[in-house]
Amino acid sequence: MPFSHHSHSGEFCGHAANTLAEVVEHAVQRRKMSTFALTEHCPRGDDDLYPEEAAQHNAASLAALFDAFIVEAVRLQQQVHAASSAPGAAQCEILIGFEAEWIRPAASTAIAQKLLAQHGGTIDFFIGSVHHVGTVPIDFDRALYERARRMCGGSDAALFAAYFDAQLEMLEALRPRVVGHFDLIRLFADAPDEDLRAAAGGALWPKVLRNLSAARGMGALLELNTSALRKGLAQPYPRLEICRAWMAIGGQFVLSDDSHGIAQDVADTSRPKAARFNLQLPQLESRLSLAVPPPKAAVWDAQNCKTPVDRDKADDE
Ligand SMILES: [Zn+2]
Ligand SMILES: [Zn+2]
């Protein structure tokens, strides 16, 4: 049964398509998802609007849009779960979450904490993602990627290093249940399909291993995110060598199509060919612990989710 732990809709995201109801209907009725997570982007501050948002949004309107997302997500979740009790009806666990940002450490942490405080009873988990380096988006378009690269000195190696350092900061501050598109920084790089063990003369690989170890230490799951394939990369996020390193330390995955509308279902895991996403990982199936999760198996426990600070204290005890 296919499943995805990461999705967006045009109703609540300026660079996506379709209403959330259409996205859910497509996932449940057409794709026969067994688990589908609604994980809209979290709100951002006035200085961090995407180009398509600048004309019509500010921090307050993005925050209101997110609140509206939660209301609609709950309505659809209840609708799907109620309908599933009918004989022969599609069975799909709808999870509600969000994709946290890491743009400015204090502000990004405050936004995630606010959402969890406000919607903690509703939110099942959140994805910790890094889409910015030095506050500049690195996956939005090539021009912005190149701007971020210039700010880091002009080389992909330096930008990658800064990205993985930002990711470690994000992991330690937010302690996400799911780590989003671990090596997203590859998207606009000069050699996007380069083996990260060899990239930059081997200088990046220790940072990759360091971040995997941090994620594993906090019990996070890595998403196997197929949006990379949709965008023309040879392998999903993360690449094969990272998947192997993650499995070597006992890590587990969730699967994500990161769809921004119903046209983007490259990740359809009902197609056998797509099952391993171009990865030569025969053991992968055994690591997909959430393939058919029992209800709420993907839930980050409330203590972890709501207050990362409390979680840190618990670790010390
Ligand atoms: Zn998006
Ligand atoms: Zn993302």
Could you give the topology of this structure?
Blueprint: E1 3-4, H1 20-30, E2 35-41, H2 59-83, E3 93-100, H3 105-119, E4 125-128, E5 132-133, E6 136-137, H4 142-151, H5 156-174, E7 178-179, H6 205-217, E8 221-225, H7 227-230, H8 240-248, E9 253-256, H9 284-287, H10 302-306, H11 308-316
Helix pairs in contact: 1-2, 3-5, 5-6
Protein name: histidinol-phosphatase
GO molecular function: histidinol-phosphatase activity
EC number: 3.1.3.15
Q: What does this 3D model show about the protein?
A:
This is histidinol-phosphatase. Pfam families: PHP. One of its GO terms (biological process) is L-histidine biosynthetic process. Belongs to the PHP hydrolase family. HisK subfamily. With 317 residues, the protein is an alpha/beta fold. The protein has a single domain (3-316), classed as Metal-dependent hydrolases (TIM Barrel), CATH 3.20.20.140. The protein is built from eleven helices and nine strands. The strands form two sheets. A seven-stranded parallel beta sheet has the order 1-2-3-4-7-8-9. Strand 2, helix 2 and strand 3 (93-100) form a beta-alpha-beta unit. Helix 3 (105-119) packs parallel to helix 5 (156-174) and helix 5 packs parallel to helix 6. The radius of gyration is 18 Å and the shape is globular. The termini are far apart. The structure holds zinc ion (2 copies). One zinc ion (ZN) is lined by residues 99, 129, 131, 180-181.
Labels describing this entry:
single chain; about 325 residues; alpha/beta; TIM Barrel; seven-stranded parallel sheet; two-stranded antiparallel ribbon; about 10% strand; globular; binds zinc ion; histidinol-phosphatase; hydrolase; PHP_dom
